[in-house]
């Protein structure tokens, strides 16, 4: 645990500014071996360290530097090399992409709750952060997950996760790593757009309050929330315009201007939906001209579904070599345009909504790896 006062490190502020450069976003490629393994196996591939390494090389050696400012890696990947024996950290840095690292150890049940969770990993976080910094990581990410249902999320779950996110952020900054704080509102369920806005506001305000109390340097911290939208099973869908209005209204009520960037997660949306929603948010933000933050992306599945499909076909010889890497570049460019409110289409993805990488539940279950 960190007891000393957190240094207000201008270098960490510089990392935050570098990650929020206009027209760039963050590639979230930090899936655990279990999570990425299920996706690989579903595509007919083995879940081995070499297959995982080869798949991720499509992203880290692609020409993504004009669209991607940072990439979040899993701990295994941080130590891996490209096929020509360059460390992935070097591959990214050579392209102007800052390497980051996921530092939480997954979700665990919150005692006494109705299937709610907290996040594990604080006990060993400081020593691990110092090791990751030596390996070349410059920023970190920690995910909490909040379930929306009748009476959920509970106040106890909101406060517990907010406290853990703030403690993580303080430890990361003390170890010379810039933290990304991710309080994910799970998309599962049939809740409405209004309910999503109410829950998001409660969760974000609790997180910000705990960041202040720790204290964490907000100018050296980024936020990674879900866009405000109905649950995936809601009978009434929302237009991209309705999502953009609800999202910006909620962010204004909850996020102080000291935080330089809001990097939205895709949360199970299709590749095209993620881009269109992000674009709508930035179009509206430009029209209103009163938003103090960068409004960009930290997408995982929404930057990977088509890439994985093409790479699987590459491995079987059905498409030319390099097709997956070209798709990684195209998806990054589409979302970079959306981060400026300038996406025109057509979208480069080749997967339908039914073919996304969305898992039906992203909380905690006894039958899945964290």
From TrEMBL:
Q: Which UniProt keywords apply?
A: Glycolysis, Lyase
Q: Which domain of life is it from?
A: Eukaryota
This chain's protein is named fructose-bisphosphate aldolase
Q: Which InterPro entries match?
A: Aldolase_TIM (IPR013785), FBA_I (IPR000741)
What pathway, per the record? Carbohydrate degradation; glycolysis; D-glyceraldehyde 3-phosphate and glycerone phosphate from D-glucose: step 4/4
- Keyword check for Oxidoreductase: no
Query: What is the enzyme's class at the highest EC level?
Result: lyase
The record's annotation in Gene3D superfamilies points to:
Aldolase class I
Under Enzyme Commission nomenclature, its number is 4.1.2.13
What reaction(s) does this enzyme catalyze? beta-D-fructose 1,6-bisphosphate = D-glyceraldehyde 3-phosphate + dihydroxyacetone phosphate
**Family, per the entry?**
Belongs to the class I fructose-bisphosphate aldolase family.
């Amino acid at each position: 645990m960190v007891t000393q006062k957190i240094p207000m490190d201008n270098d960490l502020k510089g990392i935050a500014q570098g990650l929020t450069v206009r027209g760039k976003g963050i590639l979230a490629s930090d899936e655990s071996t279990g999570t990425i393994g299920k996706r690989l196996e579903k595509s007919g591939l083995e879940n081995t360290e070499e297959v995982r390494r080869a798949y991720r090389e499509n992203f880290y050696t692609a020409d993504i530097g004009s669209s991607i400012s940072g990439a979040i890696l899993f701990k295994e990947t941080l130590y891996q090399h490209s096929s020509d024996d360059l460390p992935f950290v070097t591959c990214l840095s050579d392209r102007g992409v800052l390497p980051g690292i996921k530092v939480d150890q997954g979700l665990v049940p919150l005692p006494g709750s109705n299937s709610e969770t907290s996040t594990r990993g604080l006990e060993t976080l400081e020593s691990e952060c110092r090791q990751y910094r030596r390996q070349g990581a410059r920023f970190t990410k920690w995910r909490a997950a909040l379930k929306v249902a009748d009476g959920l999320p509970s106040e106890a779950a909101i406060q517990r996760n907010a406290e853990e996110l703030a403690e993580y952020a303080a430890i990361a900054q003390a170890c010379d790593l810039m933290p990304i704080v991710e309080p994910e509102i799970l998309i599962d369920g049939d809740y409405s757009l209004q309910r999503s806005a109410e829950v998001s506001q409660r969760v974000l305000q609790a997180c910000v309050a705990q960041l202040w109390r720790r204290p964490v340097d907000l100018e050296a911290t980024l936020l990674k929330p879900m866009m405000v939208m109905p649950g995936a099973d809601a009978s009434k869908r929302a237009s991209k315009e309705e999502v953009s209005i609800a999202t910006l209204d909620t962010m204004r009520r909850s996020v102080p201007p000291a935080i330089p960037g809001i990097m939205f997660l895709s949360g199970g949306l299709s590749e095209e939906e993620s881009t269109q929603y992000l674009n709508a948010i930035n179009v509206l933000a430009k029209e209103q001209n009163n938003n103090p933050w960068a409004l960009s992306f930290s997408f995982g599945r929404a930057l990977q579904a088509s890439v994985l499909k093409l790479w699987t076909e590459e491995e079987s010889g059905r498409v030319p070599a390099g097709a997956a890497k070209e798709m990684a570049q195209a998806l990054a460019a589409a979302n970079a345009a959306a981060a400026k409110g300038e996406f025109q289409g057509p979208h480069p993805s080749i997967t339908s909504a039914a073919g996304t990488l969305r898992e039906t539940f992203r909380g905690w279950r006894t039958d899945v790896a964290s």
